[in-house]
Amino acid sequence: MSEIARRKNEHLELCVREDVESRRGTLLDQVQLLHEALPELSAAEIDASRELFGRRLAAPFVISGMTGGTEEAGRLNRALALAAQKLGLGLGVGSQRAMLVDPSCADTFRVRDAAPDVLLLANLGAVQAREAGVRRVAGLVEAIRADALCVHLNVAQELVQDEGDRDFRGCLAILRSLALELPVPLVVKETGCGFAPATLARLRDAGVRVVDVSGAGGTSWPGVEALRGSRRQRALGAELRDWGIPTAAALVYAHRAGFTAIASGGVRSARDALGALALGASAVGLALPFLRAYAARGEQGVLETAEDLCEGLRALMLLSGARRLDDLPSIPRVLGSELRAWTQPGPTC
Predict the structure, then answer these.
(1) Who contacts 331 (Cβ-Cβ below 8 Å, separation ≥6)?
(2) Which residue ranges form the domains of the chain, and what is each CATH number?
(3) Residue 40 burial (10 A CB sphere; 0-12, 13-18, 19+)
(4) What's this model's pTM, rounded to 2 decimal places?
(5) Distance between CA atoms of 2 and 17, rounded to whole angstroms?
(6) Is the CA virtual torsion 130, 113, 281, 26 positive or negative?
(7) What's the average model confidence in pLDDT over 106-134?
(8) What's the pLDDT tens digit per position in 6-17?
(9) SS3 assignment, position 288
(10) pLDDT in tens, 151-191
(11) N or C: which end of the chain has fewer CB within 10 A?
(12) Nearest to 119 by CA among 156, 157, 138, 145
C-alpha cells in the first residue's frame, strides 16, 4: 500500500471512531430565526431546491469530499453517490492527489455512472495544483466528469503531518490561473479553519468567485493528524486543534465580500443548515455525519441521514415563514453576542 493510500485509510478510521472535532463552536447556534406562528403556507409549498453550477439540488446539501485512492474509499464514494442520486444532493470526492501519483486508482473517484444527475465536485490541494499546472488539473476534472473543481487549502493540517507540505508559495498564482483557464467553475475550499476578510479580498482579486468557507467548529484536521503517530505530531496537532475562524463568522465575511458561498465546517443538523442559509450560504456541506452513518449502516445510513436533514430543513423553513431558500436571509433573526463580536465592522475585520 502506498503512503498516500495508507494515510487515507487511517484518516477514515480515525474519523469514524475517535473524537476528531474542534472543541470550539461553529457559532451557527448563535443565529436564531424568529418563529412564525401564522406562516400562511402549506408544507407542500416549501421549496428547498437550489440551482448550483448548472445542476438542480432537491435540497441545498452537498456531501463534502472525503476520500479516494483506495478500495475502501472507492466503496464509500460509490455509496455516497448512490444516495446523492436518489435524493438529489450534491457530492464531492476527496483529494485526487492519489490520481496524480497513481493513475490506476482513478476508478475509486469515478462515480458518474452511479450518479449521472448529481452536482459532482472534483478536488485537489492547492500545492498539488501548483505542481501539476492547469492542464493536468483540468484532466483530473474531466476524468471523473465533474461539474466544478474544489481546490482545498489545508496549511494547518500539512504543518502537523510529518510528511506534509511546508512550502505554500505560488498557491495564489495557480488559483488565479485556474479561475481564468479552467473550463468548469472553481471553488476554493478551506478545510476547517475558515477564511479571513483579507484572504477573501486576495481571492476575489485573483478572479475566484466561489468559496467553501469550511470554518472551525467541525472536524479538526490538525486534531486528526495528532492521533496518527509521532510525538511531534501529537504536540503540534493538539496546539492547532482549535485554530481557525468559526464557520458562521467566515460565512458572514464571504457573503460581505460578494462570494457565492458553500457553508461547511461543523454543520451537524438542519438547525445549523438553516442558520448558514440565513447568513447567505448558497449550499451547505457535511462530511463527518455521512461518513459515520455509512460506517454504521452503509448506504441506508447515508440515505436516512440525508432524509432527516431535508425534512428538518423544510420544517424549519415553514416555521420561519420561508417558502423558498431565497426568503431566509430576510427573515428576522437574533444574533448571539460572540458572533456579533466576530463580525461587527471594525479595523480588524
Answers:
(1) 33, 34, 278, 320, 321, 322
(2) 51-343 (3.20.20.70)
(3) exposed
(4) 0.95
(5) 23
(6) negative
(7) 97
(8) 888 888 899 999
(9) helix
(10) 999 999 999 998 889 999 999 999 999 999 999 999 999 99
(11) N
(12) 145
Which residue(s) pair with 57 in the sheet?
50
The three-state (H, E, C) secondary structure of the chain, written as one string: CCHHHHHHHHHHHHHHHCCCECCCCCCHHHEEECCCCCCCCCHHHCECCEEECCEEECCCEEECCCCCCCHHHHHHHHHHHHHHHHHCCEEECCCCHHHHHCHHHHHHCCCCCCCCCCCEEEEEEHHHHHHHHHHHHHHHHHHCCCCEEEEEECHHHHHHCCCCCCCCCCHHHHHHHHHHHCCCCEEEEECCCCCCHHHHHHHHHCCCCEEECCCECCECHHHHHHCCCCHHHHHHHHHHCCCCCEHHHHHHHHHHCCCEEEECCCCCCHHHHHHHHHCCCCEEEECHHHHHHHHHHHHHHHHHHHHHHHHHHHHHHHHHCCCEHHHHHHCCEEECHHHHHHHCCCCCC
Q: Cell digits for 294?
A: 455509512
Reported as a single tens digit per residue, the pLDDT across 20-48 is: 999 989 999 999 999 999 999 999 999 99
